[in-house]
Structure prediction request, 124 residues.
Amino acid sequence: MDEHMKRRLDKQRKLFSQLGIALDALTIHEKEFSMKLRGYDPEEVDTFLDSVIKDYERFYATIADLMDKWQEQQITLREMKAESKPAPPPVIRGIDPKEIEETILRLEAGVRQLKERVQRSEII
Prediction:
């Protein structure tokens, strides 16, 4: 068995262990059955176990792919949260706070102008 396959099987065993799955492809492949007088046909058993192994390989690939995608989405979500701009101040009862500020400034300017007119009219 080459090094790549060993690493792949180790990763598979760790993942399956975390998920509570007792069997992996290599365990199934290496399983030896004792022979009895009226036992099963060894070739038929081997053929069936080969298909089980292929399914395990597909399950592992699917689970690993989904976990990778989930991790990518978590990274994207963190980046989006970091990039998000603070929300604008809330509009209270349909009134924009900026409009209130501008109105107050105009009213204050109007009051100053009225005071100046009153002072001028008293001088005259």
About this structure: The chain has one domain: 3-92. The first helix runs from residue 3 to 18. The mean pLDDT is 84. Residues 3-92 form one domain.
